[in-house]
Amino acid sequence: MTLAVKSLLVVASLALAACNNPDRYGAGGPGGAGGPGGAGGIDTTGLGDPNNPTSIAYFNQRVGDRVLFAVDQSTISPEGRAVLTAQAQWLMTNTGYAAIIEGHADEQGTREYNLALGARRAAAVQNFLISQGVPANRLRTISYGKERPIEVCSTEECYMKNRRAVTVLSAGAGV
Amino acid sequence: MRAVLRTLLALIVGLTLTGVTPVLAQNAPPRIVIGPGVIEPMPIAIPTFIDEGGAGEYAREIGRVVQSDLEGTGFFRTIGEEAYISRITGFDAPVAFEDWKAINAQVLITGAVSVSGDRITVKFRAYDVFNGQVMEGAALQFAGTTQGWRRMAHKVADVVYSKITGEGGYFDSRVVFVSESGPKNQRLKRLAVMDYDGANVAYLTDSSAIVLAPRFSPSGDRILYTSYESGFPRITLLDVASLARQSLDEQPGTMTFAPRFSPDGGTVVFSLERGGNTDIYALNLSSGGLSQLTNAPSIETAPSFSPDGSQIVFESDRTGSPQIYVMPASGGEGTRISGGAGRYGTPVWSPRGDLIAFTKQNEGRFHIGVMRTDGSEERLLTASFLDEGPTWAPNGRVLMFTRETSGAGGQATLWSVDITGRNLKQIPTEGPASDPAWSPLLP
């Protein structure tokens, strides 16, 4: 009936408008690509040459842009400490970059709890980097909770890669 | 004789169903007591509403919505037209009650619709067939614009439901939710609102930023939600009529989420994260005054007021796993009320004040459950790979929640269930949907 048709038209036009507005984490965004274990291949376009030690690509791939966490935990593992120590050294050498640390959780948890858990993980990384000498004003945190998994299966194999904190670089001395 | 037969039927059916107890005494008004008891749905008749001028399809459609509302509760069964012995020829024509008794209709709902321009008038009567009387207070007329025709049908059904169950209605209500699209690792989300049954969808935001967990104000005129519009999660207030929105908290370096209104609509409780630690705060909307309600190194989130505004139920992982606590509305450490095995989250106080609904995670499964406000009498109502985020119907008898399937193709859908655990069903939506929040009953 006409009411239904009208609602459909409204829906269709809004859907079209929405297509032009992927969120900042969408296609081409900083988090979808890059880093070991990333989903769907690694796209380094615009990130510089991974062989150039001052490039973002080098940081993402050679230094390592992320650390992983145990279920419900925000404690940094020995492997994570090694990655973050290298991140801190890189950041102190390459002072033209700031970083946003993105905290994530796997899908086993409620939405709001996972937001808080992701924030706790991001803060753990931030605190570690600061303790290694990175100026606090170059670091900022954000949590995506369980909103942005990089792996989409529902087993521990994927969950372990989704429980992560990713250090996302941007050009600029502060955030 | 008939009563005996029906009792027998009830006993047989009672082995597999739970929930409703129609009272069968012939001289008592038709009555369903919603509780842990058992029994068959009450048979009712809803003949096509009379067209009293210009009603066209509205007459038939309104009757269909009334039928869908009542049958959707699981407490009523509509007798098909083919069984009718007599017809309703006019709204004020005498009713041949014997003919409706003969087909075992306990309640007969007659109605009439007229339309003039964009104005529609709906009137109805609900009869107690065995007594041959209009049920007290169940003869009403609603008038408004044709655009609101479904609301009028919902109001008819609310009156009938209310008279027969003794509970408040909930059909004339809206649900705000998050409409989802796109793959699991790149989900697009935007706010949408619909009738409680999934009809009349309207979108409130675009999907340019992640939006989460909307909640209606007590009068339904405003919506609180969490938005990444600024690049960071912030609690945001949306005016439903104008769609104007404002971010409520702008403290740099912090993240705010999980907002919910106080019962008077003047205060927002929410979670604020600073330096990795999440606590609960209250923001006075008129003064802008901010007060900290919890102060612990653990995660404190998902606050929800008691309906009298005196207490707040919330979630904390201070013992190492998320559990449910209750504190005074002024803040404090709170008293733990969840006691079973597993992790508890998203507590929501019933509008009736008697129960708290929650999400429980245990042994790899998620459940929606209810417990009394002291944590006793926990009952799990659902189980699946991922059920979460219950919201109460305005009458405190039905819950809606998000159910998400597993794997790469996993999608979220909306479901509802009675607090007795029966009548679990999916709410039809055009695409994947999550985070429902029920409005109050509309005026």
Helix fraction of chain B?
Answer: 10-25%
The total beta strand count of chain A reads 4
Q: What percent of the residues of chain A sit in helical stretches (DSSP H or I)? A: 40-55%
**Biggest chain pair interface:** A-B, 51 and 59 residues
* Major beta sheet, strand line-up of chain A: 1-4-2-3
Number of DSSP helices of chain A? 5
**Kindly state the mean pLDDT of chain A as a whole number?**
80
| β-strand amount of chain B | 35-45%
Radius of gyration of chain B: 24 Å
Average predicted confidence as pLDDT of chain B: 92
Mind telling me which CATH architecture of the largest domain in chain B this is?
Answer: 6 Propeller
Examine the secondary-structure arrangement and name the CATH architecture of chain A: 2-Layer Sandwich
Count of discrete structural domains of chain A: 1
Number of helices of chain B: 4
CATH superfamily of chain A: OmpA-like domain
Nearest-angstrom radius of gyration of chain A? Answer: 18 Å
Q: Mind describing the biggest β-sheet of chain A?
A: 4 strands, mixed
The overall strand count of chain B is 32
Structural class of chain B: mainly beta
Class from secondary-structure proportions of chain A: alpha+beta
Task: Describe the protein.
- The complex is a heterodimer of chains A (175) and B (443).
- Chain A is of the alpha+beta class and 175 residues long.
- Chain A has helices at 2-19, 56-64, 78-93, 111-131, 156-162; strands spanning 66-68, 97-104, 139-145, 164-171.
- Chain A has one domain (24-171): OmpA-like domain (60s Ribosomal Protein L30, Chain: A, 2-Layer Sandwich), CATH 3.30.1330.
- Chain A has five helices and four strands.
- Chain A is globular, with a radius of gyration of 18 Å.
- The model of chain A is unreliable at 1-45 (pLDDT under 50).
- By secondary structure, chain B is mainly beta.
- Chain B folds into two domains: 43-165, Rossmann fold (3-Layer(aba) Sandwich); 174-438, Neuraminidase.
- In chain B, 12% of the residues lie in helices and 42% in strands.
- Chain B contains four helices and 32 strands.
- Chain B has helices at 2-13, 57-72, 97-102, 149-165; strands at residues 20-22, 32-34, 42-45, 50-51, 76-78, 107-116, 119-128, 133-145, 174-181, 188-195, 202-203, 211-216, 222-227, 234-239, 245-247, 254-261, 267-274, 277-284, 290-292, 300-305, 311-316, 323-328, 335-336, 343-349, 355-362, 365-372, 379-380, 387-392, 398-404, 412-418, 425-427, 433-438.
- In chain B, the strands form eight sheets. In chain B, strands 3, 4, 5, 6, 7 and 8 form a six-stranded mixed β-sheet that branches.
- The two termini of chain B are 44 Å apart.
- Classes of the chains: A alpha+beta (175), B mainly beta (443).
